[in-house]
Write a structure and sequence with these properties.
single chain
Length: about 260
Amino acid sequence: MKRFFLPVIVLAVCFFAPWLRAQEDPAALSAPPTQRDKDELQARIYMAKKQYPDAVQVYARLSQEYPKDAAYLNYLGIAQLQGGKMDEARKSFDRATKVDRRFSDAYNNLGATYYAEKQYKKAISQYQRSLSLKPDVASVYTNIGYAYFAQKQLPKAMEAFHKALTIDPRVFEETGRAGSILSYRSVADRGLFNFMLAKDFAQNGDAANCVVYLRRAADEGYKDVGKARTDPAFAKVMGDPNVKALLDEVAPEPTPPPAPPRS
């Protein structure tokens, strides 16, 4: 069964929701767990074990018992989406936005359902709605960038990726803190994608990260890594020895043929 990947930031909110409530009400830390707490814990365990149908059952029940809590509908949608139930997930995210019109994560996730089905214009619309409510979330900018990238609108994609990197320079790391994203796995031409990121770092004079993403581009089979030598966007980092060494390794310049013998 097909699985779909969502920004870690949304899943992290899902897993740590009880802790967040405890911070709002310190007395909850010492109070005995309620049935609601037990249900949430059970749902999180099911999600961690990838037992998505079981998680769906629990979140569906919680959303019925607490119909004004849009978060449960969002969690329900995540479980449905991870379980391959695209249409059901979309309905849950849509219901979450109707319960709470300012629920930015739900709009982002609604966009993810459209992205997964290659309805990129609809995805971008939902991502933009999410950003209108919470404009400083790097992962949503990357999602917009992926959608533009899929449409081959590379300047708009790079603008979105640059904004994401400005907010969080580590946003494209697949492992690490919450806020990095997994949608990267769905990018079709990952070699070109990484080369574009290398170019963005180069334009900002960040040679270290430029090397990282040039290496990734080469590892993904991108054939034009060597074009960095003549691309003006890389001018700021071409004097860096690590950039030069990387290019010499993965895209060595052709050796000129020997001069013909003089007669």
